[in-house]
Amino acid sequence: MKPAEPCVQNRFRSALQSVRRTRVTETCGRVVQVIGLVIESEGPVAAVGEVCRIQSTRRSETTLAEVVGFRNHHLLLMPLGELHGIHPGCEVIATGGPMRLAVGSGLKGRVLDGLGKPIDDLGAIVAEHTVGLNLLPPHPLKRQRIHHVFQTGIKAIDTFTPCGCGQRLGIFAGSGVGKSTLLGMMASHAEADVNVIALIGERGREVREFLERDLDAVGRAKSVVIVATSNEPALHRVKGAFLALAIAEHFRDAGQNVLLMMDSVTRLAMAQREIGVFFFDTATTVCYTPS
C-alpha cells in the first residue's frame, strides 16, 4: 500500500483532535444570584478559565460566561455578553475548556468582535486551525534578539525613533492629535505581511471613523481588526486583546511578518481593574491590575 498523502494525514489529525475535544456528556448547574457583573451558580464542575453556556427560558440566545473563581462551593462567572434575561434557575452548562478561535488566511480584511465573531457582514470566516486564547509567553532565554530594522513607512519614525523586528513601541498623546491616523498610516505603508489591529475600549463612533477614514484599501486588505467597544463587558474587552495576540502569534508562527497595534493598552488595564474590583482583589484597590 502507498503511504497516505500529507494532506490526508493532516485531515486525519484534525479529525482526531476534534473527536478528542468532543464531550459525550454535559455537566450542568443553576444560577443562584447575580450581583453586578458576577454570576454565581451552583455547579457545574468546571475549572477557572473554562467557558460555560447560560441558557434562559426568557430569551432564545445563549450567554457565554467564563469561570473566574469560587465561593462557598459555588462558581463565580463573568459574562462575555449581555446579562439581560438571566434569572435564578437558569441552566449553566460547562463546555469543557477555555475559549478557542478559528484562525487562518481568511481573517485578512475582516473585522471581528472581541469573541472572534465577524461583524462586517461579509459571511462566515474560512479558517484552517483553532487556537486557544490563554497562550503562555515565550521563555525569556529563548526569545530572539532584535537585529533587523522594521520599516514603518513613516520617515519621521524611521529616522528619529527606528524600530526593530520584535520591538514594542508606545505611542502617547492626548485626544484628537492623530494617534489613530498614525496607526492607519503604519497599516498601509509598513513592511508587514499582516496587520493585527485591536481597538479595545473605543467608542463605537471612533471605530467606524477609523475603518472608513484612517484605514485605506491597501491597509484594510492585509489587516485583521478586532473591535471590543467601551459598552461591552470588561471581560469581553480583555478577551479582545488576548484574541489579537493569539491571531498575531498564529501568523508569526506561519512565517509571516506581523505588525500588532492596540488602541489602547490603557483601556485594557482599566478593564482588568474593573474585573479585580468586582472580586475585591487587594492589589486592584491600590491601582494595580489583578494578577
Q: How would you describe this structure to a colleague?
A:
The structure is a single chain. The chain is of the alpha+beta class and 291 residues long. The chain has seven helices and 14 strands. Helix content is 29%, strand content 24%. It has a six-stranded antiparallel barrel with strand order 1-2-5-4-3-6. A four-stranded parallel β-sheet has the order 8-13-12-14, sandwiched between helices. A two-stranded antiparallel ribbon has the order 7-9.
What is the topological layout?
Elements: H1 6-21, E1 28-35, E2 38-42, E3 51-55, E4 63-71, E5 74-79, E6 91-94, E7 100-103, E8 111-113, E9 129-132, E10 149-150, H2 155-160, E11 163-164, H3 179-189, E12 194-200, H4 204-214, H5 217-221, E13 223-228, H6 234-253, E14 258-263, H7 265-278
Parallel strand pairs: 8-13, 12-13, 12-14
Antiparallel strand pairs: 1-2, 1-6, 2-5, 3-4, 3-6, 4-5, 7-9, 10-11
- Portion in helices: 25-40%
**Count of alpha and pi helical runs:** 7
The string of secondary-structure elements, in order, is: HEEEEEEEEEEHEHEHHEHEH
Spatial separation of the terminal alpha carbons: 55 Å
Mean pLDDT: 84
Radius of gyration: 21 Å
Please outline the major beta sheet.
6 strands, antiparallel, barrel
Q: Walk across the major sheet and give the strand order.
A: 1-2-5-4-3-6
| Residue runs with pLDDT of under 50 for 5 or more positions | none
Query: What general outline do the C-alpha atoms trace?
Result: globular
What is the strand content? 15-25%
Q: How many individual β-strands?
A: 14
Structural class: alpha+beta
